Amino acid sequence: MAEATETDFYDKVFPVPERVREKSYVKSRAEYDKLYKESIDDPNAFWAKMASERLSWFKPFDKKKVSDWSFEPGKVHSKWFEGGKINVSYNCLDRHLADKKNKAAIIFEGNDPNDWKVYTYQDMYREVNKFANVLKSLGVKKGDRVSIFLPMIAELSIVMLACTRIGAIHAIVFGGFSAEALRDRINNCGAEVVITCDGTYRGSKAVPQKATCDKAVDQCPGVKTMIVVKRTGTEVAMKEGRDIWYEDLMAKADRYCEPEWMDSEDPLFILYTSGSTGQPKGVVHTQAGYLLYASMTQQYAFDVRDEDTYWCTADIGWVTGHSYVVYGPLCNGFTSILFEGVPNYPDFGRFWAVVEKYSVNNFYTAPTAIRSIAKEGDKWVDMHDISSLRVLGSVGEPLNPEAWWWYYNKIGAGHCTISDTWWQTENGGHMILPLPGAIDIKPAKAMVPFFGVVPAIMDEDGKEIKGPGKGALCIKKGWPGITRGLWDDKEGRFEENYFSQFPGYYFSGDGAERDADGDYKITGRVDDVINVSGHRLGTAEVEAALTSHPDVAEAAVVGFPHDIKGQGIFAYVTLNHNVAKTDELKKALVAHVRKVVGPIASPDQIQWADGLPKTRSGKIMRRVLRNVAAKTFGDFGDTSTLADPAVVDDLVANRKKLG
Ligand code: WTA
């Protein structure tokens, strides 16, 4: 393949490599167009066929009630496959036993390269059944919530599937969150059982996990039981009457648990995510629509074949891990690697060592990981044989040109394609992506909508742009994977957040651009949400954490370009009178945010600001703050509505001093 320089490849189209096409489910753009058209022209017929063929039902859904949805203000709702009875663990495990019981379901690759274990479908089935009985013996019933605070260990996939077996709703909290963040999430969902472990590995270190969970649960009056998995052997305090070891419970558990027959629309899980307002939102997904959508997209986005080894590096604490480490691949009967480690331990070649070890074919990761490895040089790649790779996936934030090119050229070596998948927690699965064998790719573009997905780009007046154009990315029609709403949503935040800006449309919060061929490029968030290392964070959450510090009067947080993280966190802080502006205080504020939200929310830069650029009506002009943080001082646009325009000069002068 011809060498491209960093500037000229953007205009090129990279055709599907033959070895990718050979293994693909959809082999040409024409075939994709035909299938897509079918899915849009008669969505109910399309989805009814998919749901009947791909899922195993205890009772079939009502063919007259395939879907019932509306995005109209006041009437927002989504229901799919009503009348059907189904169980997610049955679909992910039981039904594969007949022909795949000895196939690897989960390959656990530990933090230490010598610590790994293969769980066959039979192994998973046995462990999940046993843990389902454990939950039952503790009084957990259908509809009860179970909070899970675990790192990437096989037990995490076991306990989540066990919840689905008895119809309990799991609420997994990413292991890197603080005790306070965990406490709020447990209290919001009202879980009586929490599952955690003694400690967890981060690179060469073992760090406490239960201790964080204890701090949270001490302030969760509803929690009756804490189940503790033994992972690191770290000394922990077990609270009498509340805490029980996982291993002790499992040793006594029966090996079969009848799966609960769930309605298609019964809740499956709650997953907390950030929005532009302060409090995290508990996004709810239900049984059948979610499972169908996750499994279908998992298969089509990466052209995964029965014989393939598939690896999604995401943490199960985020939606990518839910849909693409556990539910999608297992529903499809595929082999999924569950990775406990980090890209730089024991060295920067870890990803490629794992690819080589298991002969990985389909690999799915985030731009931040790609950037952090690429910057260490090619030698870490060259040490390993990664020729098994066929489809490379990306998710979480836009790929920048350098990262795209390195991924394509160095990792893909010209014989892989890149599936840049755009989607969100609320979507359940991929929404816009290039189907690997069908779509020739354009660098850093997510390309085309998945079956049944109808994107719309809106202009500033709220009108839909037809043809090429740039604006706010919305979705026009219902799809099975859409969230059914927010947990405990008394204030109607669901409708307010997603359906009020553009009535009749689901608004994603992202911007997008459509080219003359109809292909999409995602341009990033257009609201006050930032993507830090692919983790979604509301700036309001970080601001709330900062202002909860006794020395802080006011804070405004924006994203700014960061080489590795994509976006870093830049905080403008106004201190209370007579508080000294010291570097020690900056450090204390960073520590405070880590304590309140978690390490992922640590500000990268703090700038003292005696005043913030506010309009006369008191609204902070964030555009100015973003430009100052990014050091694009040239053009602040119209600042005539600012109450005190001199504030901007101060901000600029201080930013320059900060370096
Ligand atoms: C961003 C993660 C550009 C986007 C699955 C979205 C992306 C947010 C892409 C959702 C992509 C995700 N290109 N941006 N391929 N994929 N995003 O809910 O801003 O954690 O709104 O779900 O990530 O983050 P979430």
Write a concise keyword list for the protein shown above.
eight-stranded mixed sheet; binds 5'-O-[(S)-ethoxy(hydroxy)phosphoryl]adenosine; seven-stranded mixed sheet
Helical/strand content category: alpha/beta
Tell me the span between the first and last alpha carbons.
41 Å
Instruction: Tell the overall outline.
Output: globular
Q: DSSP helix count? A: 21
| Sheet with most strands: strand arrangement | 12-11-8-6-7-14-15-24
* Bound ligands, each once: 5'-O-[(S)-ethoxy(hydroxy)phosphoryl]adenosine
The overall pLDDT, averaged over residues, is: 95
Strand % is: 15-25%
- Roughly how many Å is the radius of gyration? 24 Å
Helical content, roughly? 25-40%
Count the beta strands.
Answer: 31
Low-confidence stretches: none
Task: Describe the sheet with the most strands.
Answer: 8 strands, mixed
Oligomer: single chain
Question: How would you describe this structure to a colleague?
Answer:
The protein is α/β, with parallel strands linked by helices and 659 residues long. It contains 21 helices and 31 strands. Helix 16 links the parallel strand 19 (391-394) and strand 20 (417-420). It binds 5'-O-[(S)-ethoxy(hydroxy)phosphoryl]adenosine. 5'-O-[(S)-ethoxy(hydroxy)phosphoryl]adenosine binds at residues 273, 318-320, 394-398, 420-425, 446, 508-510, 522, 525, 531, 536.
